[in-house]
Structure formats: structure tokens, C-alpha cells
Amino acid sequence: MVLSFLLLSVDYRQQHLASLRAALGVVVYPLQFLVSLPVRAVDSIAESLSSRSALLSENRGLREENLLLRSRAQRFEALQRENTHLRALLESSPELGEEVVVAEVLAIETNATKRQIVINKGSQHHVYVGQPIADASGILGQIVEVSRYASTAILLTDSRHAIPVQLNRNGLRALALGDETGELLSLSFVPNNSDVKVDDLVVSSGLDHKFPAGYPVGQVVAVNLETSEAFADIRVRPASHVGRVREVLLVWPKPIAPQSPVAIPTTAAP
After folding, report:
1. What is d(CA 261, CA 258) in angstroms, rounded to the nearest whole number?
2. DSSP-assigned beta bridge partners for residue 220
3. Which residues of 165-184 are buried (b: 16+ CB within 10 A; e: fewer)?
4. Are residues 132 and 194 in the same domain?
5. Are residues 113 and 245 in the same domain?
6. Is 98 helix (H, G, I), strand (E, B) or coil?
7. Cα separation, 210 vs 123, whole angstroms
8. Best label site of 111, 125, 235, 262, fewest CB within 10 Å?
9. How far apart are CA 155 and CA 201, in angstroms?
10. Taking 50 as the threshold, does the pLDDT of residue 263 lie above it?
11. Count of domains in the chain?
């Protein structure tokens, strides 16, 4: 024990064993490396798993953020389209020259026998049966049922609907009915020799005192003149976006001013 202490003391002062320690260090290093290898491998795997978990978490967060941003972008586009449509409706109101109110479409019912919509305005908004409805492009139909907070309107293309019309080009009058397809209108009671052309604009005539005169109804898309028939087969595509509207205009037509009676001059008695 004392000898070991003396050797260590001598080596500390004179460094006689430094070369021996260096040689032993070279021999021992591979053993130290092999002993520490499992620990280093475990640390490396743990670090790799931690990095992978962090990347997965970051990737998941980015996907969720991307989905949210895409959803907001789509909503923004939808709001832009809605605002554009509302501006078109409101800008069309002065052109109509009537009192109008914008109503929202709550439901659309289209089947083999019916083409109608439900709107969010009713009797408390002074809606009445027979009231015309329109969009920014033209007449849509008319109200057929009214409750306090909602109303049902029949569309132009419903086979039960009819509206008196005229050709804007020459004033030719007819009756526009919803046809069997539920997509177009047919002009009834138009003689075979009438002047009707494809692309003619069809407008309301106002003869029924229900629809104001001059509203766009549609455009002629087909004219079939059968010589064996008394009347022509004429098809019209509606000007309004039937079945695809989200907002409509409720129209209150201006009352027809009564005509003043013509004064008949009286002849003074001789």
C-alpha cells in the first residue's frame, strides 16, 4: 500500500508512467467505445423518434391549418358570389320601377309535376297570393301560398303556370306556359304564319294586371311551323335562373292609374 502510494507520488512529480498510461489508453479505448455503443444507439434512436414525432405533429398541424385556410377561402369566394348576386338584385330594382324586397330561398321543390320554391317572407311582410317574383335577370313566377313567416311560389317552368307575354321585337302577343320538361316555356296560341324568330326576346305584356309589363321572361330557342297545325310550336328558355336561385325579388306592381273619363262637349240649345 505504501509502495503504491510512493509510486503514484513519484509518477505525479516526475511523470515516469505517462507513456504507460497513454499505451493503456489506446488499448482500453476500443473497449470503452464498445461499452458506450448501446447507450449511444439508444440515445440516437430516441432522438430520431422524437424528431419523427415532432415532424409528424408539425405535419398534422400544417394539414389542419391548410384545410382551415382552404375552407375559409371557399367561404370567402361563396360570400363574394353572394354579394355580387345581391348587388345585381339591388341594382336591378330601380330598373324594374316597382317596389321590391329581397327574399331568401329556403327550399326548392322540383319533381315530375311541380316546380316551386319556399321563401322566407310571409304575410307579416305583406306578401300576397298572386304576387310576382323575379331575379336580376327576369320573372321567376308568382306566389301561390302565404303563411305568416314564409311563402310558396310556383315557377315559370311549372306546367301549371301561365303568363301573358309579347315579343319585344314586334309586340306579338301569346301565352307562355311551363312545358312538360320543366326546363323551358312554350308559347301558346301563336298562328303558324306569325313573325317569330329564334333569339327573339319575350317579355311580360301586363295584360293580366298581375305581372308588370316589360319584364324579361325568356328568349326563343326553337320555332317549329307545322303547316298541318293552326298554331306554331315555339319554345322559350327562361331569362331567370329557375331552380338555381338563392335570393329573389318580391315585386309590388304599381297600381294602374284609372283613366279619366273623356268629357263629351255639349251643344248649346239654339
Report:
1. 9
2. 236
3. bbbeeeebebbbbbeeebeb
4. yes
5. yes
6. coil
7. 18
8. 262
9. 19
10. no
11. 2
40 or 108, higher pLDDT: 108
CA distance 238 to 186: 10
Q: Which triple of cell numbers denotes residue 250? A: 318580391
Query: For residue 35, which amino acid is it?
Result: V
What whole-number distance in Å separates Cα of residue 27 and Cα of residue 186? Answer: 105
Of 96, 118, 144, the position where a domain reaches its end is 96
Q: Tell me if 142 sits within 8 A of 160, measured CB to CB.
A: no
| Boundary of a domain, candidates 96, 121, 149 | 96
Chain segment 145-195, per-residue pLDDT in tens: 999 999 999 999 998 999 999 999 898 999 999 988 888 999 998 988 889
Q: How far apart are CA 21 and CA 177, in angstroms?
A: 111
Number of H helices, E strands in the chain: 2, 12
* 265 occurs within a structural domain: no
Q: Is residue 267 part of a domain?
A: no
- Give residue 116's identity as a one-letter amino acid code: Q
DSSP for 245-266 reads: -SEEEEEEPPPPPPPPPPPPPP
**Structural domain that includes position 137:** 100-252
